[in-house]
């Protein structure tokens, strides 16, 4: 039984995730060595060593998540503590949190930091998937089947937004929207949700307009259209990202040979790591990252379509959409397709909270895939066992008649 389960794991997904993480570890060292010395007066391998430790923790949690039956996650015994823990954690930030980049988003735990909003993403995916899976019989009853699960989503988005971290709040909302659209509810209810959602958001936008439309955030919008108009101020990050991407060309300058990481490009090992990859490894390095991320996202969608269990299907689509949306936001910001939001590139950028949360999420995805493959093999074995017995029955009947 255990051997059959092990054979059912999707090793292609595991291999791609591992390779992408190891590639990211190498690029974190290359991108951060100068920043560690010049900006923080740390050893050159400081961020590399921390990321290596993050990966070790992530690997353990990935294995545990891959072994833990995903169907147990929809139990109320697990959902309620998870929801409570996330809400308490996000609320506690306002008392014990640490301000980083003008946002109260972190807990300082000795030499390390923890970002609760990263884990809030996964909690929203699990919660919405579980509740909407249970409500399939009356999913189109607006008051009973559609609205109740959204209370948790609204609370999480509000707590993240007022930190303020509007980028992460928007990503959580986009992930939830993907699950809602995939839940099976009709277009009428989706239209209602959009209408009521806009009506609900309007007062908050008016009340927080000075914060939402601050000079810094408006500057990001004006900079992304033409960063060279104000290259030394609002367009500084994006302009240097362009220089890095443009100078890499097809082959790149070579691993460790980036010029922009020498103090020109801020946060080269986090938000702008793709620019350093492009500069040092050219189109081949960027292509590896893009193809790997696309494979993980498409594999998640494939698992969702193959899974017959509504909870597993919604969980898979939620996890794959989270990886896809976050990748698009990071890559789009670094390349000037959309305004900058300060989101790490999944599996590649430096960051403990992001890496650990992604490891748990992909572990769950691997577990769903395992159950799908195991059930398919079990059905095939049943069919193959029934065919000989049916043939024997037909043969006996034939002999009897003769």
Q: How many β-strand runs?
A: 3
Spans of 5+ residues with little confidence (pLDDT < 50)? 396-402
Largest sheet: 3 strands, antiparallel
Number of helices: 15
- What would the average pLDDT be, to the nearest integer? 85
Helix amount: over 70%
Strands side by side in the biggest sheet: 1-2-3
Compute the separation of the termini in Å: 44 Å
List the secondary-structure elements in sequence, H or E. HHHHEEEHHHHHHHHHHH
Radius of gyration: 24 Å
**Helical/strand content category:** mainly alpha
Question: What overall geometry do the principal axes of the alpha carbons give?
Answer: globular
Integer count of domains: 1
Strand percentage lies at under 5%
Tell me what the structure shows.
With 402 residues, this protein is mainly alpha-helical. It has one domain (2-396). The protein is built from 15 helices and three strands. It has helices spanning 2-7, 11-38, 46-67, 76-96, 116-134, 142-146, 150-161, 166-182, 187-207, 209-212, 215-225, 236-248, 273-306, 310-335, 352-401, and strands at 98-100, 103-109, 112-114. A three-stranded antiparallel beta sheet has the order 1-2-3, with helices on one face. A hairpin with a 2-residue loop joins strand 1 (98-100) and strand 2. Helix 3 runs parallel beside helix 15 (352-401). The model is unreliable at 396-402 (pLDDT under 50).
Question: Which descriptors apply to this entry?
Answer:
single chain, transferase, 402 residues, 3-stranded antiparallel beta sheet, FtsW/RodA, mainly alpha
């Amino acid at each position: 039984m255990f051997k059959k389960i092990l054979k059912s794991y999707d090793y292609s997904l595991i291999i791609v995730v591992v390779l992408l993480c190891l590639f990211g570890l190498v690029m974190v060292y290359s991108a951060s060595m100068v920043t560690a010395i010049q900006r923080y007066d740390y050893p050159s391998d400081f961020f590399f060593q921390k990321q290596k430790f993050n990966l070790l923790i992530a690997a353990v949690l990935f294995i545990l998540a891959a072994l833990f039956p995903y169907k147990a996650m929809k139990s109320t015994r697990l959902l309620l503590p998870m929801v409570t823990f996330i809400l308490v954690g996000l609320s506690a930030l306002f008392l014990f949190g640490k301000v980083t980049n003008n946002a109260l988003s972190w807990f300082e735990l000795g030499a390390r930091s923890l970002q609760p909003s990263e884990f809030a993403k996964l909690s929203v995916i699990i919660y919405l998937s579980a509740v909407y899976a249970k409500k399939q019989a009356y999913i189109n009853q607006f008051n009973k089947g559609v609205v109740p699960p959204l209370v948790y989503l609204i609370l999480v988005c509000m707590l993240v937004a007022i930190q303020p971290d509007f980028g992460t709040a928007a990503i959580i909302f986009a992930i939830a929207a993907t699950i809602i659209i995939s839940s099976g509810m009709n277009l009428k209810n989706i239209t209602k949700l959009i209408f009521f959602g806009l009506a609900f958001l309007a007062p908050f936008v008016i009340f927080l307009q000075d914060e939402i439309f601050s000079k810094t955030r408006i500057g990001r919008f004006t900079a992304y259209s033409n960063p060279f108009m104000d290259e030394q101020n609002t367009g500084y990050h994006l302009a240097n990202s362009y220089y890095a991407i443009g100078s890499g060309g097809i082959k790149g300058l070579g691993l460790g040979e980036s010029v922009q990481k020498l103090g020109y490009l801020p946060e080269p090992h986090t938000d702008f790591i793709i620019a350093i990859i492009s500069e040092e490894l050219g189109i081949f390095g960027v292509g590896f990252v893009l193809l790997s991320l696309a494979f993980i996202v498409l594999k998640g969608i494939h698992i969702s379509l193959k899974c017959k269990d509504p909870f597993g299907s919604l969980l898979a689509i939620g996890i794959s959409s989270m990886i896809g949306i976050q990748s698009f936001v990071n890559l789009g910001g670094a390349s000037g397709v959309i305004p900058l939001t300060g989101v790490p590139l999944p599996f590649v950028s430096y960051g403990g909270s992001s890496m650990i949360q992604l490891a748990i999420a992909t572990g769950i995805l691997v577990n769903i895939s395992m159950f799908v493959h195991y059930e398919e093999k079990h059905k095939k074995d049943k069919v193959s066992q029934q065919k000989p017995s049916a043939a024997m029955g037909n043969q006996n009947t034939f002999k009897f008649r003769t």
